[in-house]
Amino acid sequence: MKTLRAKILLGFGASLFLVAVILILAIILLLRLGRASDAILQENYVSTLAAENMINDIERQDSGVLLVLLNFKEMGFKEFRESEVSFLQWLGRAKDNITIPGEKEVVEAIEKNYTLYLQDISQLQLGSNSNLNQTISIYYDKVLPRFRTIRDTCIKLRNLNHEVMYAASKQARQLAEQAVLFISLIGGVTIIGGLSFSLLLAHFITRPVTELKNAVLNLAQGDYTVQVPVRGEGELALLAEAFNVMAEKLRHFHEMDIDQILVEKRKSEAIIRSVDDGLVVVDENLLITNINPKAKAVFQVEDEEAQGKHVLEVVRDDRIFQGIKYSLETGQSPRIEEGEDILTIQHGEQAQHFQTAVLPMRSRAGGIPGAILVLRDVTRLKELDRLKSEFVMTASHELRTPLTSIGMSVIMLKESAAAKLTDQEREYLEVCHEEINRLKALVNDLLDLAKIEAGKLELNVEKVAPDFLARQASTIIKNQAEVKSITLTVELPADLPEVLADANKIVWVLVNLLANAVRYTAQGGHVWLQGEKVGEMVHFRVQDNGPGIPRELQSRIFDKFVRMDQGEATSGSGLGLAISKEIIRAHRGIIWLESLPGQGSTFTFTLPLSR
Questions:
Q1: pTM for the whole structure
Q2: DSSP E strands, 384-525
Q3: Whole-number average pLDDT of the chain
Q4: What interhelical angle do 144-220 and 235-274 show, nearest 10?
Q5: Strand, helix or coil at 286?
Q6: How far apart are CA 50 and CA 151, in angstroms?
Q7: ∠ at Cα 42 (38, 46), nearest 5°?
Q8: Chain centroid to CA 3: how far?
Q9: 73-96 vs 4-69: helix axis angle to the nearest 10?
């Protein structure tokens, strides 16, 4: 038996064969037509062009003779000689391109008459002072008739070639008409044959395919008892048998697995309801498909108010909405800066704080059918953090006064009792003085950080030139760098635009970053302070060629009390980078670290441009 593939190939093969025949014939006819066109151009174009130019040249020579007769001898002789040279050149080309019957005789007649014409011209004795009347008489009796004979013969040559070109063009046109007629006939036969075959093939294929399509639609709607009639023994019959087997297996699987699916669904819903954190499940259309009791309490909605609603109608927070959209589009959780992932819900006079996270759901096929919004109640942690900040602020204030008193006492002892003390006692006193200063710096840093975390940081924001900030910071740190023979390079473009910033706070950040770079860079090292415009922000960059920061510290470098262990270089409170981060965040910028151990570190922060 012939397979469906063989039948289709046979029918289309015949059609392709006819198309190939038409293509070959069309190429042959086009080549013939092209050769006919080339013959018109190659054989007759040169002769026609030569005749045209000889007509022009003989007329110009006659004009030259008349100019001489009118006593414009110099101009006339020049015109005659130039035209004579051109005439002889074109006559030579005409003799070299004799291709049609009768053309040779015409060219020979032109050559013969032109020779006689030149002889007649010589009889005029144009260069002598001969009798003018006699010269004019010779012109009219001999020269003018000879000129007309040459011109008429050149015209005859041109017309002869025109007639041949017209005949060749007519032949090419007839050939083109024959080609169009022939191709049209063959094409018509091919179209009729192909159409007939397509109708037969469509009837042969579409009937079982339509039956199969209807069966698939019924199956998709849940009718697992559907069956397709099996006709013949070809591939379509095998496809119908395979579909019937599949439908039967799906029916058995559906009957067996539906209960298990319902059990799993109930189990998932029970888990969602029992989780302490708030959960909102959203599909790919941003519609809520599930919400647990905790989330309902947070947003003060019931099931019927939330199910099937757009997530923005329930959550009413654009930042979270944008995070869910990003997760559905990319399949990744949105990146949210620390502190910006907190959602505050006001219930009367009480405020609840929830840490939010958006997690994409993935199907086995790799698709993103939805996303989950997780709400973790951090109200108690926020309260503890507030209490901690208040304690730190209170403790720091309480420590300030005794530390100041102790410091003053130590200074007085150093000044008044230094002569009575031994060298070891003076050394102890100096250590005591240094430790008091360190504790005072720590207390000041703690107070600054507590103010920032409590939202009490006051910023005097104004337009500031980045060059001014860089110069202020580099001037402050210059002496420390010179002590260690460290080269401090400031590189800022002259056209760097102004930024919106509190100058004192940003200079403090730059000084802190530069001081760290100088502290951890070896003797004779290099520190750079750079700036550049990137989009709507200005990037400040502090780079060094020191030992770099270990990878295990890089993720925590902006946390409180994190310091590198570098022996004698280790000093400070470990709060500088934490304070710097909060100051930059208060300016609507960000700060980050790039470092490879052994290759130095680069701290970069951004500030917005002034509008």
A1: 0.44
A2: 462-464, 487-491, 499-501
A3: 78
A4: 60
A5: coil
A6: 12
A7: 150
A8: 49
A9: 150
Residue 170 in this model has a pLDDT that exceeds 60: yes
- DSSP for 469-505, written as a single string: HHHHHHHHHHHHHHHTT-EEEEE--TTPPPEEE-HHH
Neighbours of 434 (CB within 10 A): 11
Cα separation, 143 vs 65, whole angstroms: 9
Read off the tokens for 548.
Answer: 């770099």
Hey, what amino acid is at 210? T
Average of pLDDT values for 538-564? 88
Residue 569 has pLDDT above 90, yes or no: no
Angle at 129 between CA 126 and CA 130, to 5 degrees: 80
Cα–Cα distance, 307 to 288 (Å, whole number): 5
Q: Are 247 and 217 in contact (CB under 8 A)?
A: no
pLDDT of 130 reads 59
Residues whose CB is less than 8 angstroms from the CB of residue 144 and which lie 6 or more positions away in sequence, other chains included: 62
The 10s digit of each residue's pLDDT in 252-265 is 766 665 555 555 66
pLDDT of 349 > 60? The answer is yes
Phi, psi of 139 (to 5 degrees): -60, -50
Residue 143: other Cβ atoms inside 10 A: 22
Q: Is 521 helix (H, G, I), strand (E, B) or coil?
A: coil
Answer yes or no: is pLDDT of 521 > 70.
Answer: yes
Positive or negative: CA dihedral 570, 572, 573, 576: negative
Is there a contact between 301 and 314 (Cβ–Cβ < 8 Å)?
yes
Longest dimension (CA), the chain: 151
Pairing label, strands 526-534, 487-491: parallel
Query: Which two three-digit tokens encode residue 326?
Result: 């990003």
Residue 170 to residue 538: CA distance in whole angstroms:
78
The pLDDT, as a whole number, for residue 462 is 93
Amino acid at 220: A
Closest Cα to residue 298, out of 341, 350, 345? Answer: 345
Which segment of 32-36, 356-360, 443-447 scores lowest on mean pLDDT?
32-36
> At residue 490, what are phi and psi to the nearest 5 degrees?
-105, 120
State which H helix or E strand residue 509 sits in. helix 503-520
Q: How far apart are CA 380 and CA 580, in angstroms?
A: 27
Specify the pLDDT at position 493: 92
Give the Cα separation of 586 and 90 in Å (integer): 92
- Any idea what DSSP says for residue 610? P
- Using alpha carbons, list the distances in angstroms from residue 591 to 336, 492, 496, 558, 584: 14, 18, 19, 9, 7
Tokens of 235: 């591939």
Higher local confidence (pLDDT), 136 or 573 = 136
Task: Supply angle C-alpha 282, 286, 289, rounded to 5.
Answer: 35
Q: Band of the pLDDT at 11, cuts 50, 70, 90?
A: low
